Amino acid sequence: MARYIGPVCRLCRREGMKLFLKGESCYTDKCTIEKRNVPPGQLGRARRAKMVGYGIQLREKQKVKRTYGVLENQFRRYFEAADRQKGITGELLLQMLERRLDNVIYRLGFATSRAQARQLVRHGHFTVNGKKVDIPSFSVKPGDIVAVRQTSQKAPAILHALEEVKGRGVPEWLQFDAAALSGKIGSVPTREQINLPVQEQLIVELYSK
């Protein structure tokens, strides 16, 4: 499966914002954006200054793709699925991405980044409603219970993540049970509950051309 294997801080600099791709270091002064918030390359400052129209729409799409770790074909499928449903397409798109299993694992604090959550899911450390699921793109729904498998509850990576993310908080649409190392999907997240500073309408306009 194709995936980006380059330096992730470069992606944050290209988008001009924190995408939280590198775990807990993104929440500290070590974050590259704190020190050097310019696009990569010698002409970085000029490229950002010239961005208008199509470029702005493209950057909004890239922010969302890179935040959730999906590539173009998969992202387009999400958009097409959202476009077929009744409602605001941009919000539906973000809701679908939020309900990915790897994102839920990250939001619950079982991983310090979505990339780590994706790896943990692929290695079979989690269950959904008691059944092992190793597909990061698996879509959860209200009422589902996501839990760490019994054999993985002492996994160093998960325990380290839980310790590192203390105080980060869990979104209102998720219910975290620290004793059982599980979380329940309380509802579909609203746009206000999705903490992502993007203008999703620009993505809709880009794909609607």
Question: Key features?
Answer:
single chain; about 210 residues; alpha+beta; Ribosomal Protein S4 Delta 41, Chain A, domain 1; Structural Genomics Hypothetical 15.5 Kd Protein In mrcA-pckA Intergenic Region, Chain A; 2 domains; five-stranded antiparallel β-sheet
Tell me what the structure shows:
Helix content is 44%, strand content 8%. Helix 4 packs across helix 10 and helix 6 packs across helix 10. It folds into two domains: 102 residues, Ribosomal Protein S4 Delta 41, Chain A, domain 1 (Orthogonal Bundle), CATH 1.10.1050.10; 88 residues, RNA-binding S4 domain (Structural Genomics Hypothetical 15.5 Kd Protein In mrcA-pckA Intergenic Region, Chain A, Roll), CATH 3.10.290. The mean pLDDT is 85. The chain has a five-stranded antiparallel β-sheet, with helices on one face.
Largest beta-sheet characterization: 5 strands, antiparallel
* CATH overall fold name of the largest domain: Ribosomal Protein S4 Delta 41, Chain A, domain 1
Mean pLDDT over the full residue set: 85
**Count of discrete domains:** 2
Instruction: Please state the structural category.
Output: alpha+beta
Q: What's the gyration radius in Å?
A: 18 Å
Give the number of DSSP strands.
5
Strand order of the largest sheet: 2-1-3-5-4
The amount of beta strand, in percent, is 5-15%
